[in-house]
Fold these 4 entries.
Entry 1:
Amino acid sequence: MTTRRQFLKVSAAVGGGLLVGFRLGAPETAMAAEGGDDSTDAAGVFQPNAWVEMHPDGRTMLTISGSEMGQGAMTVIPMMIAEELDLPWGAFDTRFAPADEAYSNPALGAQVTGGSATVRGFYSTLREVGAATREMLMQAAANRWGVPISELRTEPGVVLHVATGRQAEYKTLVGDAAGLEPPENVFTKDRADFRIIGKPMKRLDSPQKVNGQAEFGMDVRPGNVLMASVERCPVFGGKLKSVETGKARKSANVEDVIELDHGVAVLARDWWSADQARKKLWIEWDEGELADLDDEGIDAQFREGVKKDARPARTEGRGAGALGSEENTLSATYRVPYLAHTTMEPMNATASVTDTGVTVWVPTQAPGSVQQVAAEIAGVSPEQVTVHTTFLGGGFGRRFETDFVREAVTLSKQAGRPVKVIYSRPDDVQHDFYRPAAYNELSATLGDDGMPVTWVHRIAGPSIWSRVAPGMVKDGIDPAAVEGAADHPYQIDNIAVSYANIDPGIPVGFWRSVGHSQNAYIVESFLDELARRAEIDPVEYRRRLLKADSRHIGVLERAAQMAGWGGDLPEGQAQGVALAESFGSYCAEVAQVSIENGKPRVHKVFCAIDCGIAVNPAGVERQIHSSIAYGLTAALSGQITIKNGRVQQQNFHNYPALSIDQMPEVEVSIVDSGQPPGGVGEPGLPPLAPAVVNALAVLTGKPVRSLPIKLG
Amino acid sequence: MARLTINGRSVSLEVADDMPLLWAIRDYIGLTGTKYGCGASLCGACTVHVDGKATRSCITPIASVDGSDVTTIEGLSSGGDHPVQLAWVAEDAPQCGFCQSGQIMQAAALLADNPDPSDEEIDKAMKGNLCRCGTYNQIRAAIKHAARANMAGNDGEEVSV
C-alpha cells in the first residue's frame, strides 16, 4: 500500500476532479499468458493497460483482477472502470485475469482475493485505469479534430466537442488511441458526477449461473483427463507407510493408482469410479505425532499456555495490575472451536503437466501462489505455468490454500496426462485449514458508575500467520489472532490483552473475517455481561465507552434506531446488539431472537454498516445477508471436534449449514460517511454471533460463553 | 446399461448399475450444470427432475432411472427463460452460484405442483437445498416473483397500484 501511495502523488484538485500520477502494470506481460484475442488485427486493438482492451468493431474486454467467489468481483470491478471510462454499462465482455503481478491487489501486495479487499484495494487503481483510457480516447479525438482536449467531454461511449457539435463513438477512436502514450496524470471524477458507482447494480454473472453454463473448477474437463479421488492420512501430519493396491487397480474404469507422501490417489475415467475403487485400498499409515490428540488435550494445552506463554498484545494504563477487588470484578472463560469452511463446491484442481509447462484450471483466491506451487512441483519456471481461474463455488478463505493444486500437479506429472482432483465432501471437511480454536480468559473491574476501569483479556490459540508468513508474527503476536480483541474501540483506562501462540497441530487458515470471527463474539459478549452487571442498557453502555462522533457510534445508533431498540417486541423475543470494526468498515447488528423447542431462533437481524463509499449498494446488501448466514451457521452448529488426531465430522449431517427455514429476515442500512471504501465481504460477520448470544442472555439470564450455542 | 431421455435426447449408457445419475450426467453425458456437493442427499446441489419430480441425482442409481425422462438445469428451458430462471436473475439471487442449479430445479418442481406457495411451503420444499453464501432471502423472493409471473402471465415485476 505504501508503494502505491508513493507514486499516487496527489498534485492538485482541478475542476472538481482529482489529479493523480498515473502508472500501471505492463499489459503485454499480463495478456501474453491469455494469448490475447487474435480475432482482430492486433494493430487496431487499443490495450492501454492490463484491464482494458478495446476493438475497432466496438467490442470491449475488461479483465477481472479478482476471483469471483460470490462476492461480486465480476460486477464491481467493471463498475469502477466503466465509471471513469464513461463506458455504457454492460457494453463489454469480461475475463478472469491470468496469474500476473500486474493484478496484485494494492491493499494486499499480492494477486490475492480476500481480506474484503477487492473494492478497497482497487478503488483508486481501477478508476485511474478508466480515467486514463478515457483520456486517451479524448486525445485521439482532439488530434483528429485539431481542438484542445480541454474542449472535449464524454457521454457513455462517445467523445463530444460541444462547440462544434462533433462527436465520435469510442470504437472509431480506438485505432488512433492505440498509438498514444498513456497520460502522466489523470483526473478522476467527483463523487457527485458518478453515473455507476453508488448505484445498485445487478450481478453480471447471474444469467450463466441460472442456466448451468457458469464454469466452476469442478466443471473443467480437458481432453484425456483422469479423475482422481485421494485417500489422505486421517491423522494430521501422518504419512503413507504401505498400501495394497491390487483390488483398486482391478476396479471398473480405474486407470492408475499413485502413491503420495500423505496418501494414495486412484485415477479413473470418471470420479465416482475412482472414489469407489479408493475404498478397496488396504493402507497402513504412519500416523505420526498427533495420533493421540483430542479436544481435551487441546484445551489443556491452551489452558496451560495462557498461563505460561502469553505475550502482551496491548497494554494501556496499569494493565492487569489495575484489576480491583473481587466484588467489583467479573471474570469469564470463553471458548470457540475449530471451524471448517465447507464451500458449496468442494476443493478441486485440474492440472496438465507437459514437456513445455503446466496448465492449471482452478477455483482459487491466490492465482500467484498456484503458479509458484505448480512451477516448483513440475520443475519449471513460473512463466511456464498458465493458471486459469474459474468461477469459485465459494471461497471464505479456504481457497487461499494450494493443497489441492499440489495434488493435481503431482498426479498429472506422474500420470503423464491431465488430472482432476476432486475432494469428496468428507475429504473437504476432514482436510481443511480450520478457523483456529481459541481459549480466552477475561476479567474486568467496574467503577462505581458501573463502567469498566480495567479490562484484561488473555488468549491462547494457534497462529495462522506462523505458517503462512512467519514475518507477520512480531514479538510472539499474530495480528490475526488478536484482531478485534487487542484493538477494540472501547475507552478503558487500564487494558491488558495478551496472546499465547499454542499450536496443537491441527492445520489452521483464514476463515471469513479471520480473528474477528471469534474476537468480536468474545469482546462483545463479555461487554454485555458487564452491562448487565451494571444494570445499564447495552447500547447506552457502548455509547459511553466509545469516542463521541466516531464511526462506531454512527452504526451503533443507526442499528438501534432500525431495530426500535428498547421498544415492544413479540412475546418471547428479545434483542441483542453487537458492534465490530473490521477490514476498514464499521458494522453494528441487532438480532431479534426467541427460544423455540429449546433452541435459538433468530427472527430478524438489523444491520448498519459504514463501509465508506458503497460502490455497489446491492452487492453490499447481499454480502451482509451472506455474512449473517455464514456467521449464524457457525454460531448455531459450527464445531470441528478432534479424536485420535482425526476430525470427527464428515458431511452436512454432522457439520450442518443453515437452511432456508432458519434464515432470518435481514434489514441493511448503509451509513454514508463519505470515506473511501472499506471492506464488505466480511465485516457483517463478526457482530452476528455476539448479537445473537446477547439476545439469548436477555431471555435466559445466562451468558453464552462458548460456541456453538448450547442452551440449558 | 441404462437408457434414458435427458433434456429430450435419448441416451444409452454402458456404466455400472449403481453409478449415481449425477456422475453419469457429469462424466459420461458431459453436462456439468448439475453439481456435486455432498454425495449423500444432504445439500441438494445435484437436484434434477426425474419424470418431473425433483430428485437428488447423487444417490439415484442410474439403473433406477432406466426408461425415465430426466431434465437437468441445461434442459429446464431453451434460452434460460424459464420463469424461475428469469425470476432468479430479476431478484439478483445467485452469489457464488454453485448451489443454484439445484435450487432452481427444486423451485421449478415446487411451483409446478403448487403455483402459489406460502412461506411455510417454500421452507418445506427448499430446506434441503443448502446455500453457503446465504442467498435464501433472495431465493424466497425469486420463488414468489416466479409465482406472480406464472399466475399473471407476465415477467412478475411487482406492480404498484
Entry 2:
Amino acid sequence: MSPDEILTVLIAMLGGAIRVSTPFMFVALGETITEKSGRINLGLEGNLVLGAMLAYAISYHTGQPWLGVLAAGGAGMFLGLLHGLICSLPRVNDIAVGIAMMSFGIGIAFFFGKPYIQPSAPRLEGLPLGTWSDNPALRQALEINPLFFVGIVVAIFLWWGLANTRTGLIVRMTGDSEASARALGVNPIRVRVLATVAGGFLAGVGGAFLSLSYPGSWNEGLSSGQGLMAVALVIFARWNPLRCIAAALLFGAAGAIGPALQSVGISQGYYFFNAAPYILTLFIMIASARSGAASQAAPGELSIVK
Amino acid sequence: MEQAQSAPMPRLLANPRWKAVAETVAIPVIALVTAAIVFSGFLLFLGKNPLQFFALVWQGGFGSAFSLQNTLQRAAPLILTGLAFAIPAIIGLTMIGAEGALVLGGFAAAALAVPLVAAGSPPMLMLVLTAGMAMCTGAALIMIVGWLRHGRQVNETIASLLLTYIAIATMNFFVEGLLRDPASANKPSTVPIGKDYMIGPIPGTEVHWGFAAGLVLAVLLWLLMSRTTFGFAARVTGGNPRAAQAQGLPVGMLILACSAISGACAGLAGFYEVTAIHGQANASLVAGFGFTGILVSFLARHNPLAIVIVAILFGAIEASGGLIQRRMDLPDATAAVLQGLIFVILLASETLQGRIALFQPASDKRA
C-alpha cells in the first residue's frame, strides 16, 4: 500500500468508527446502568430494532427526526419496563427473559415496520466539522452526527452521576449487595426496574441512530446484533461509562475496517478484525476471572459474575 | 395443612408424584392460554378475527399432509438447538452458544464436503464424515466454554455468546476468502455440494432426516439424563455443585461431557441446514435457531421429550405464517409477534411454580 492509500484507509476508518460506534455507545451505556443495579438485560437488541423502526416511522409522519429519536427512547422504555417487571417476579430467569424480549421486540418492529421499508423519512443531519480541510474524504469522515456527541455527554454524566450522586450511590449499592440496600430502606426491585427502564431508553435512542443516520433507512436487516454485543462491550469497559466510549469506538473501528479496506480495493481477509473485539473481551474475562481488582469493578449481585 | 385435607381434591391429585406432573403441565398451559388471550386482544385492536387466526394456525401447521410436513421440517433445527441448551442447563450451566456451534458446525461440514465431493467419494461416506465433522466442531466450541467455566471460573453465558460471534466471524472469514465459490457473486458461499450429495427427505415424506435425528437424539438424551448414573450425577451437580464435588463426583468431566453433547447437537443442526436445505455454507446459516432453541428448552423445562413437542408447536406457528399473510392480510411477522409473546408470558409463568396450592404436596405446604 502506498502512503496515500494508507491515509485513505485511516480516514475511512476514523469516519466509520465514529458512525458505527454511536449505536454501540448507547446500548453499552444503557446496559451499564442496568447491570450496575445488579441485573442483566440481554434483550436490548429488541429495543434497538423497535427504536429504529419507530424513529423512522415518526420522522416520516411528522418530518421531525428528533421527535423520532424521543419516540424510539419511549419504545425502549416500554420494553425495559416489561423486562424489569417480569424479572422482578420470583424464580424468573433474567437471561431467558432478555432473549424472549429480544424476539418480542423484533417481532413487533417487523410487524408494524412493513409499510416503512419503501418511503424515505427525514434523517438526522450530521454536523460538518471538517470544513477547514481540503480533503473531501476527511470532510466526509468529520461530518459527525449530533447523537455521537449526545452519547459522549451522557457517558460523562453517567460516570460522574454514578460516582457522586445519591441516585448513583443507590444504584451501585443495589447492584453490589441487595442486603445492604434493604438495610438502608431501599427497595431493590424498584431500583432495578427503573435502571432497566433507563437502560432501555438509551438502547432505543441507539436504534434511532441506525435508521435516521447510519445506515439511515429502515429495513429488517438493519441491526447486525449490536444490541446483543452490548453485553460484551460492558464487560470490556468493566462497567465504566467513560470506558464505554473507548470500547464503542474500538468495536466500531473493528467493524469499519472492512469497508475502509474495500475503498482501496482490498476485499477479503478483514473478517478476522470483526472477531478481534470478541477475542479480546474473552481474554479480558479469562484474565480477570480470578483477580481481585476486576471483581471489585463488577456489580456483586450480577448473575453473570456469580 | 388442615385446609389441604378438608378441601375436596381430585383423586388423581392425591398422589404427590401426579401433583408434580400436573403442575408441570398446568403452568405452561395456563401461560399458553394467557398468551392466546392477549394476542386475541391485539388482533381485535387491529380489527382482525382472532378465531379465524387460530383456525388458520391449526390449518397451516397441522391441517394437511403438506402443512404438517412443513411444520416438522421447521421443528427439526429447534429440537436440536433446544437439546443443545437443555443438557448444560440440567447440570446448572446457562450456555447460549448453540447459534455459534450450529454455524461453525455447518460451515465445517460444508468445508470438508468440498474436497470429498471433488474426489468423488460415495455420498454415504461423505455424509457420515461431514456429520461427524460438524458434531466434533460444535462439541469442541462448547467444550472450550465448559473448560473455561470449570477450570478458570469464566462465566459460561458470556463466554458462549462471545464464542458465537467469533464462530460467525470465522465462517465469514473463510466464506469470503479462501473457500469462496467464485460463482457466488452476491452472497459469498462455499462451493455447493451438489444435488447428488444432498440428504433427501425421509421416504414417503418431504421432511428431511434432521427431524428423525432430532427425535432419536431427544429420546436417547432423555434416557441418558433420567435413567442413567451419568444423568443422575449431572442432575445432582446442577442442584448443588459444591455438594456434588464433596461427594466425589467428577464435576469437571461431567461439565465437559454435557458441553460436548450440547455442541454436538447444535453442530448436527448445522450439518442438516447445509446438507438438506442450503447445500452450501453462507450467511443463511445465521438464522437465529440457536437463540430460539434456548426459549424452546425453557418452555420444555429442559426435558428432552417435551422439547420435541414445544419445537413442533413453534414449527407450526412459523409454518402457518404464509397462510395467515394471504388470508388475513397480516404481515408475515405476525408469527414472530405471537412467538415472542408466548415466550415472554411462559417465562413469566415460571413464577407460579410452587405457588398453586392444588399442586403442592400436603406435607410440604409453604406460606
Entry 3:
Amino acid sequence: MDTITTTKLSSEEIFNLMKKFITEVIGEEFVEEMDITPESSFTKDLEMDSIEIVSFSEKIKAHFGDQIDFTGWLSSMDLDQLINLNLGMIISYIEECQS
Amino acid sequence: MPVLRINNKSVHIQELNQNAPETVVLVHGMFSNLSVYYFNIAPILATHFHVVLYDLKSHGMSEKTLSGYDLESMTNDLKCLIDALDLKQVYLGGYSFGGLIALKMAIRFPNLVKKLAVIEAPDPSDEKARGIIEEYSREFLEHYVENFTDTTKVKMGKRQMEKNHRMYEYLFHQTSIKEDMILEKDFFEDGAINQLDQDVLLLYGLTSNCLDAGKNLNQKIKNSSIQIVDGDHNIPIQEPQLIGEALLNFFQQK
C-alpha cells in the first residue's frame, strides 16, 4: 500500500516515480525493451491502453492523494490530446499541482 | 486496485463520488472494460451521483472465468456486487452486451433498478452480432483493429495486439461464451421485456447496425424513449460528453 506523499518532488523524482508506476502496470519484460523518456507518449510509444491508464491513474491517486486530480485532468482532454499525452506533460502537471 | 470477491472470483471495481446519496452502476460491453466509462462518462455522472464501474468476468482486470456468460449468470454477479456494496436501489446503465445485462437485471430485480439506460444493446437473435464470435481469427482481430483505428485514431501496437489476441483467444476458444450467447437468442421475444415498468432511455447511433434493435426495444417497452445520436455502435467513445449528459439528465429527472 502506498503512503500519500506531501513532500515536493523534483521533476527527476517525478519522472522516476512515473517510470516505476508504468513498470508496475505494463510489466518489467516490456519496459526493458523500451527507452522511456519524458517525450514518450502513452498510447504510441508506451502502447498503454485505457484500462492500463486507469491503473496508472490509480497509482498516482494512491501516491499523491487529493493533492492531484489526475483523472479529472485527463477527463478534460479530448481524444487527440489524450493520444498525444506524453510523460513530460504529466510531470509538468504534477509539478504545477505541487507549487 | 479495488477488488471485490463476487461469487468466489475477484472483480475489479472503480467508484467515484462515494458520498453521494444515489448510485449509478454502469456495465461495459463484451471484449471491453470499465475504462469505456472511466475518463469521460463517469466523471459527468459523478457530479451528482455515486458511480460504480466494474469489469465483467475475464475482462479488464477482473479474474478469468471459464463459464457463466449467459444473462442469468451475469446478472447474478451484478446482484452480488450491488449487495456487497450495500446498495438498496440503483440507476443502471449498460452498453452493448452490458445493455443486455442491464435489461435482464431490470426484469429480474425490478425493485433494485430505479431507472434503466440501454446504450447500443444488440438483438441477440441477430446472426451478424453473434457471428462475430463464430468467425473469430487473427485476421478478424487485425481487420477489427483497422476499423477500430478509424474511430479512435489509435493504432494498436504489437504488445496491445498480442494482449487483445490473448483475450479473444481465451474468450472464444476456452470459455462457454459462444454457447451461452446462443442460448440468449430469444431474449427480445420472450415477453419479459414487454413487462418492464421502469423508465428506460435507449441511446443508439444513427449509423449503427444495432439501431433496429433499439427501435424494436422502444416498441416493446412502454415507458421508453429513444435518443438517436450521430455515430455508429461506438457512440460512448465517439460522443462521450453527449452520452454522459444524456444519462445525467435522464437519471436526474423526477
Entry 4:
Amino acid sequence: MITALVNDVFIPITAGGGIRSMEDAEILFNSGADKILLNSALYENPDLVKQLVQKYGSQSIVASIDYKLTDGKRAVFINDGSRKIDTDLEEYILNIEQLHIGEIYLNSIDKDGTGFGYDFEEIQRIAKKISKPLIMAGGAGNENHLIEGLKIPGVSAVATANLFNFIGDGLPNARKKILESGENIARWDH
Amino acid sequence: MKIVIVDYKMGNLKSIASALIHLGATNVIVSDNYELLSSADKLILPGVGAFGKAMAEIKEKKLDLILKELVLEKHKPILGICLGMQLLGLSSDEGGLNEGLGFVKGTVTSFDSTKMKVPHVGFNQVKTKQELKLYKNIPDNADFYFTHSYKMQSSENINQCECDYNGNFIASFEVNNIAGVQFHPELSQHNGLKLLNNFMTEF
C-alpha cells in the first residue's frame, strides 16, 4: 500500500497504527514512509520511541495524542481510545516532548468525525506552551474551521480527514479559500 | 541517463528514486560502488539523520575521496538533498563540530529552539531566482517541503536562494556542477519535480 503510494505521490507520507517494535517501524520506512505516527507506544514504551528517534531522527517521528473530556477534564487515551491515562493532557504533552519527537498530532476524540469544528478552547490554551510543531485534529467540517485553526498562535498545521474523504472536492476548495483568506499555506498548483 | 544515488545507509531513498523514474530517468541506481559512481551521469547525495554519523559513514566507505575525485576533479554534477546538502558544506555544529566535505563555503548551525518551533517542518516559500539552473520555469517564491533542525549560512556568493524561518537561511545553492537543496524536492509536489527535472537537464 505505502509502496504503491510512494511511486506517484510526491508529498511526505506518514504511516502509523500498531507500531510496537523497531521491526514494525523498519517495515514502514522500507516501504517508503517518510515519517511514522506513534500513539500508544509513547506511553507504553518510551525507550522504543527514543531508539526510533536515534535511528531515524526527530523529524521522522510524529507523536499522536488522543484526548477526550472525562469528568470535566481533558484526559489522554491510548489503545484506540480504549485506555485512559491518569496524566493531565498538558503534562502528558510536555513529557512526550522530552522524547525529542519531531511533531505533535493532537486529536480531540469528542470532536473527531463531527465536522462541528476543532476543540478551539483547549487548543488556544495549550498551543503556545508546546515547543514542537503542532498539528490540530478532530472536528473540521469546513474551510472556516481550518482558517480559524491556522490563526491560533502556536498551531503549525490543521488536519482534516472529513473534508478529504467525504466531501467531493472539499479539500481543494478549502485550500483555495484558505489562500484567499491570506493564510500562508503552500501553493503547489502552478 | 544514469543517475546514482550515493548510498551511505541513511535516509529514505525510495521517494527520490520514484520521483526520478516518474520524470523519465531510466537508470536509477543506489550504490556506494566506485565503478558505478564513476559511470553515473549525475550523482545525488541524499540524507536524513545526524551530520556526524553521516560523515563517519562516508569516510568509512571512502566516499569522501571518491566524491572529491568525481565532483571536484571530474566535474560530475551532484545534487545534495537536505542533510546531503549540508554535508557538501564546510562544517556543522550538530553534536559537536564536525567537518563536512567542504565543496562549498557554507557552515551549518542549529536553529534556536528557544525562539521558534524546531524542527522547521512543512511547506515554506523560497526566494527563488529563475535565472538559476535549478529554478528554470519555477515561479518566484515557490513552496517546497522542509524538515530540518539545522540550517546553512554563508558569507560567500554560492548562488544561494534563501528561505525565512525567523531569519534567513540557505534553501539552495548552485556552484557550477555542485548544487544543494535544504528542502526535499521529492516531497514538494510539482515544484519539486520541476527542480529535479532541471537538475537532470540543466546540469
